[in-house]
Design a protein that fits this description.
Elements (H helix, E strand, L loop, with lengths): L1 H22 L3 H9 L6 E5 L6 H17 L3 E5 L6 H9 L6 E6 H10 L11 E17 L7 H10 L5 E4 L2 H14 L4 E4 L3 H9 L5 E5 H9 L3 E6 L25 E9 L4 H15 L2 H9 L3 E2 L4 H21 L6
Parallel strand pairs: 1-2, 1-3, 5-6, 5-7
Antiparallel strand pairs: 3-9, 4-7, 4-8, 4-9, 4-10
Helix pairs in contact: 3-10, 5-7, 5-12
């Protein structure tokens, strides 16, 4: 009995000493741990199907960060549920920096403006790493559509309120399309899809009349004649779609619909690891082949600080809340 008590005391004493040593780990040692990160493969969680603009960006950075660190980076697509499935997958993972959420304006801003109650808070549940890219959208119709210009589409929509429908790959695209309705004084009906790629497929199959989609996922299809692009939602034309009018030329200069992609981790992730991830994304984004890729895609590479990303999120949420009210979009 006495020996058992002595063994228990020794165990408790050793545990207390180890706890004290852990608490007393100097900042330099913790920084060294962060510098050694990652020591094993990372995974990027994308809340949309493969082929979306967010997925493309995730895979581009995954490849480059894998090359920089010598560690594999696996991209996991978790589509559906307005991005909630991907969000919960990322937030339920250990907050050690090895699971990175590659989200977009829908999951990191517009959901907060269009849902009455979210199962997460994009500002408090996530620690921002960096904004990655921002790019315009295109308004597309099926290749065999009778609409050859945006003006023709809008004219028919005004004549037949509610008759035309649009494909929506996420809540952001719903918001953009309802914004188009409001600006153009038309009424069209939403057909929801799990992601931008599915919405584009819906247009190609002529299951919907039109869609506002990320330009990255539609440029090659438009150039190949599989869909028809009516307008590019930027003040100037895209050099990749020189025959497609800018939204200014198409007659709706205020419809500047942009998609953006950003990286974030659980808010419980150690700040030193967040900083290390930011450095890795910045190094990857500054690689010549990555910059060349985004130049060819007519997409702007941003590479912000975490603080800049957080402020951008706040500004976006405020803007979309105001727009949702103006467009009378019912909260989900």
């Amino acid at each position: 009995m006495q020996q058992a008590l002595r063994s228990r005391r020794r165990f408790l004493l050793a545990a207390a000493v180890l706890a004290m040593l852990g608490a007393a780990t100097p900042p330099a040692a913790r920084a060294a741990d962060a510098d050694a990160f990652p020591a094993r493969p990372l995974r990027f969680i994308v809340p949309f199907p493969s082929g979306s603009g967010t997925d493309t960006t995730a895979r581009m950075f995954a490849k480059k960060i894998g090359e920089l660190t010598g560690q594999g980076v696996v991209v996991e697509n978790k589509p559906g549920g307005n991005g909630f499935i991907g969000v919960q997958t990322a937030l339920n993972a250990p907050p050690d920096g090895y699971t990175v959420f590659i989200g977009s304006n829908s999951t990191l801003s517009t959901n907060a403006a269009t849902f009455r109650k979210l199962p997460y808070d994009p500002l408090t549940d996530f620690a921002p790493i960096t904004l990655l890219s921002r790019g315009p959208c295109v308004i597309i119709v099926p290749a065999g559509s009778p609409y050859r210009t945006l003006a023709e589409l809008l004219e028919d929509a005004r004549k037949r309120p509610g008759a035309l429908n649009y494909g929506s790959g996420s809540i952001s695209y719903t918001l953009y399309s309802e914004w188009l309705n409001e600006l153009a004084r038309i009424k069209t009906t939403a057909v929801p899809y799990k992601g931008a790629g599915d919405a584009i497929n819906g247009v190609m199959a002529a299951n919907v009349d039109f869609a506002v989609v990320d330009a990255t996922g539609a440029i090659e299809l438009a150039r190949g004649g599989k869909v028809r692009a009516l307008a590019y939602t930027a003040p100037q034309r895209s050099p990749l779609l020189p025959d497609v009018p800018s939204i200014v030329e198409a007659g709706l200069p205020d419809f500047l619909a942009y998609n953006w992609v950003a990286a974030a981790v659980s808010a419980k992730t150690p700040p030193a690891v967040v900083k290390r991830l930011q450095d890795l994304f910045t190094q990857a984004g500054n690689a010549p082949d990555v910059r060349d890729y985004y130049t060819r895609q007519s997409t702007k590479l941003i590479l912000s600080s975490p603080a800049e990303m957080r402020q951008y999120q706040k500004d976006e949420i405020q803007r979309w809340k105001r727009l949702a009210a103006v467009a009378k979009i019912p909260l989900q």
